[in-house]
Design goal:
By secondary structure, the chain is an all-alpha fold. It is built from 29 helices and no strands.
Amino acid sequence: MKRLAWLLLLSLLIAFPAFADDEQGHQHHEDLNETQLGTVHFPVSCAAAVRKPFQRGVALLHSFWYEEAEKEFLQIAKDDPNCAMAHWGVAMSLWHQLWNQPDEKVIAHGLDEVHKAQAKDKKVTARERDYIAAIAAFYDNSVKLDHDARARAYSDAMEKVYQNYPDDHEAAVFYALSLLASDPHEDSTFARRRQAAAILEKLFAIEPDHPGVAHYLIHAYDKPQLAELGIPAARRYAQVAPAAPHALHMPSHIFARVGLWQDDIKSNLASIAATRESAAMHMGGEGHQFHAMDFLFYAYLQSGREADARALIEEVKKMPAMHDMYGLGFDPHEATLAQFNVLYPIEMRDWAAAAAVTPTEVPGTAAGSMGYWAKAIGSAHLGNADEVRKDIAAIERIHQSLVDSKKKDFADAAESDLKQAQAWLAFAEGKYDDAVEALRPIADKEDSLGDEPQGIPTREMIADMLLEAKRPQQALAEYQTDLKLNPNRFNGLSGAARAAEQAGKSSDATEYYALLLAVCEGSNSSRPELSRARELVARK
């Protein structure tokens, strides 16, 4: 799955603003009940009239529908000016714990909400006071803290709430989320993920209709080494909160990890439809659909549904410009289209088309770098080293520009593109050992951290190179290693089958081809790999 930094910012790392003045959107909240958002039990000392809306606000938080959660809590603050926890809810809505790192403006806004909550100190219970203190630890500006330190401070404070109120399931759920939000990216043991999962699994058996429990279990297990454990939560979450677009999409994180492409497709089609329906009702979160489209596009290509992938490209082309949605600094429609146009020929292994890609510059993003990355891979397969050198030079310019403008996430993405392009240059020059050795540390790190591959799993790239170098036995070993972490990838399965054939392992080849046919069952694909699979399997 191509998760370049510009798309991460678009779909995962962005701070969606609220549309608090949208009264029509708020009116629709009254139609959202437990059967649509899930069941939570968060007692508060606020006026009786706002307690049901408060539960709804917390349920919205648990499905990351932050725009609508903020509206709900702001309305509660109007309806009950003495409700300190309404301001806690607004502060919680502003920090999207697994999505973004709030800037100074958001920190100041959150701290203001904390102060409003603290000003009503005499009207809260001890438990509520502890919840407010926990979020205050995140927004605290008395000392200079970076985001990671803020996230850890909040998690430490929530741990105390969790310990002080062992019967409070909400404390357990929010503490588990805080563990995920403060999880160090470089931790290959996944210690905090496992700790969060242990807490949540106990609750899942007790509260299967709680939206946060199922949701955060999916996030906890969103690594290839853990993904099988997340299937029950993935199967449950969309049933728990069918009105929340993110709840409909989120199961696909697990489905994609384990290669259940049809389930992945169904999840994201439902999420896109729900997003558009809620947007038509003036509810926030229209940008969520692009993240779902990203997963949908990938799943189409892995299951032999390239016609559907092309149709999705055409659909995105026809979508109107979105003019810097959510203050990102670029049009998400344009960025998504750039990604799809690049990834299609790469996944289809159409090297001539990849080499002929016209990189699309989406200002302030790494989209241009991704285009040259694809051109470099295509040209390398065609043996055109001079073109690869030109592509590398272009990526270097883009990378330096992003470094100079201090766009770290985008710069990191361009740097990854650069390293892979340099390896493909060595390949184009016939230096196969150098090419493989350049990619191996990238693949090893990608594998150990369970990172989503950027376009093509790096391990699969190594296997492709070895197969082209006529080293089928070595290639097969690399494909097999990669398929453990990226199961049922079309090119992983077809590559393993071809390597097995060339290595004289006909039974292994037949097995891989049979699995490829099963993965693509029902498709109308005319890809030559499937034709070869049918031919070989028919002989057995």
